[in-house]
Design goal:
By secondary structure, this protein is α/β, with parallel strands linked by helices. The protein has helices at about 120-130, 145, 170-180, 180-195, 210-215, 240-245, 265-280, 310-315, 355-360, 370-375, 380-390, 395-400, 410-415, 420-435, 435-440, and strands at about 25, 35, 45, 55, 60-65, 70-75, 80-85, 95-100, 155-160, 200-205, 225-230, 260-265, 285-290, 300-305, 325, 335, 350-355. Among the domains are: about 110-280, Rossmann fold, CATH 3.40.50.11540; about 370-449, no CATH class. Helix 1 packs across helix 7, helix 4 crosses helix 7 and helix 11 crosses helix 14.
Length: about 450
């Protein structure tokens, strides 16, 4: 039975007022562009250009390597400089294509736009695959995989995840306010494949303006509903979202399609709309630049491949030297130690924080207060899992549900002892799930990671 919320969760300071009312600003890169071959779950893309080749904006420069992969396209015109290792925001090095940006942005030719009535499942899936669209809510699953369900008639709900619960992020909110028709049309395109499904636009209860916009635009569509959900973190997480809307439960070994659901993020739906209707590959995404150390917090339409350093400079720089810069938000983001890294398909935000927001804390022993248990949205006992991994008791870690951890950060946030529960538990979970023999039924997820 739908509850409009879920068990557990927390209410962190959200910081959204810094950028929520700032319209999206489009910026064009001036420097060289870097394109990682793996900006998605699955196999890296395969380069189809070589150093010295000229390229145009929108041109495919790396093709997908099999079904579980995604193509990469040039987002500027210019010349390929090199193909080789380059540093990414998470500190790893990956094979990347580096292109000299000529600043002209000459584009490829795009075929004539299509109408919704012209579409069928094969056309939609092919268009999304060719455009290199991936899930931009954080997972990075190639978007065509969700659309290729064996039995489309088993899908009862197509859910537009419009619940932007990560603190500081407002890119989805601005996208919904400024491009609501594209979000809704992306949902309708998915529903062309899932012909039995009802569409749900799931919106945070605080975004009443978005709810009104969506209701006005779907008033004459009996298959689409707008649902307001209680404001709580992590309400936008897949498992929590599905439960709040449908009452159906999902565990970490399952896919949403197993329980008749398909879930897509706001920016993903817009990318699907652009790919299918106007043949436009995934070239840009909306990125929030925010935090109390950012000089001018706001949302930017950014070309994928642009340097984070250039983005921050064009965004006005810092009001004071930041103590921490994050790729993403403070609950699930990763620390950036080098700004000479590219914006990728999965870059939702760059958050810069002052020292008093992220000062070092000294861990103290667990007090057995139980706050982490009450906060965990996946019904785990984080302090028990933490003890299991400290004592290297993997069998008990598995028995106590360690593979169900989603790394949401609720346990660490609520811990009065400042224990880094979430990071350590999720890191161990990641290591174990890559061992099919230990992971058991969870090994199914290996095929999509």
């Amino acid at each position: 039975m739908p509850q409009s919320t879920f068990f557990g969760g927390v209410h962190p300071f959200d910081g959204k007022d810094m950028s929520k009312e700032k319209p999206i600003k489009t910026i064009f890169p001036r420097g060289d562009m870097v394109y990682p071959l793996k900006q998605h779950i699955g196999a890296p893309a395969v380069p189809i250009v070589k150093p010295g080749d000229p390229v145009l904006t929108g041109q495919m420069i790396a093709r997908a390597d099999g079904d579980l992969s995604a193509a990469v396209h040039a987002t500027v015109s210019g010349t390929v400089i090199r193909i080789g290792p380059h540093l990414l925001a998470d500190g790893s090095e990956q094979e990347c294509i580096v292109i000299h940006n000529d600043g002209r942005f000459h584009e490829i030719f795009y075929p004539q736009a299509r109408s919704l009535e012209q579409l069928n499942a094969a056309t939609i899936i092919e268009s999304v695959r060719d455009a290199g669209v991936v899930g931009m809510g954080g997972a990075g699953l190639p978007a065509h995989i969700k659309l290729e369900t064996e039995n489309p008639r088993r899908i009862d709900y197509c859910i537009a995840n419009c619940v932007e619960c990560e603190p500081y992020l407002t890119s989805d909110y601005r996208r919904m306010v400024e491009n609501p028709a594209k979000v809704i049309n992306g949902l309708r395109i998915e529903m062309k494949i899932f012909s039995r499904a009802r569409g749900i636009l799931a919106v945070d209860e605080r975004c009443s303006d978005v709810s009104r916009l969506f209701r006005d635009l779907t008033r004459d569509d009996p298959r689409i509903y707008v649902r307001r959900l209680r404001s709580k973190y992590p309400q936008g997480a897949e498992r929590q979202l599905i439960y709040a809307l449908t009452g159906r439960t999902l565990n970490a070994a399952m896919l949403p399609s197993d329980i008749g659901c398909s879930v897509s993020n706001v920016d993903t739906l817009v990318a699907i709309n652009q790919a299918v209707m106007v043949h436009e590959p995934l070239l840009t995404r909306i990125v929030t630049v925010s935090g109390d150390a950012a000089a001018e917090p706001r949302n930017f339409r950014v070309r994928i491949g642009m340097s984070v350093r250039e983005l921050l400079e064009r965004a006005g720089g810092f009001s004071q030297p930041p103590a921490l810069i994050l790729d993403g938000g403070p609950m699930t983001g990763t620390r950036i130690d080098n700004l000479d890294v590219p914006v990728t398909k999965l870059t939702s935000a760059i958050v810069a924080l002052r020292k008093d927001r992220c000062g070092a804390y000294r861990e103290t022993p667990c007090t057995r207060c139980g706050r982490c248990v009450r906060a965990c949205p996946n019904h785990l006992v984080p302090m028990q899992l933490y003890e299991d991994l400290l004592r290297k008791r993997d069998d008990l870690f598995l028995r106590h549900g360690g593979l169900e951890c989603s790394g949401c950060g609720c346990c660490s946030y609520t811990c009065p002892s400042r224990m880094q529960l979430s990071y350590r538990i999720y890191s161990r979970r990641t290591a174990l799930i890559r061992d099919p023999e230990r992971a058991g039924i969870y090994a199914r997820r290996l095929s999509t990671q």
